Amino acid sequence: MTQDMSCRCGHMHWRVDTGSGGTHVICYCADCQSFARHLGQAETMLDGDGGTEVFQIMPGAFHITQGADSLALLRLGPNGLFRWYARCCNTPIANTLPNPRRLPFIGVILPPGTQGFGPVTAQVNTAAARTPIRSHGFAAAAAALVGRALKARLTGQAGSVLFDAEGAPIVTPHVLTREERDAARP
Ligand SMILES: [Zn+2]
Ligand SMILES: [Zn+2]
Question: Is 90 exceeded by the pLDDT of residue 109?
């Protein structure tokens, strides 16, 4: 099974293999909210509680099918996650670690309520939610992520279209300035 996704303007398309497994989580952390806010997508990408829906998969389960020239990358700070987006219309795409070899996974970002990725099984980092949310499923989601990362290594699916053979990102990350970061803070 696969799910085809696209940015809001339709220039960039990507595909997610859902058959190889994934974990559907909602992250309420301030950084995920800042990412959406910096892109001007808080209205479209955050749910009413400030949550970001993420589908965590093996890197090999993510494919760019059209418009790769729009791929862009930012970090909220010098040590921040890699946050990938489509620059044509500022649509968030995915999160990864800066060093994909350490823990190979991709967290594909879903607009709130997207169907086809199974039920949400974890709500994490709820302290920064706009309303009180009960945190649950963190341990299971973390274990599944580590399990998939190991499997990705063992089955040769740790490589990703987002990184070259040396493990460097295929586009240069932009690190937000302190002013940009402050302006995006929820
Ligand atoms: Zn676009
Ligand atoms: Zn988050």
Answer: yes
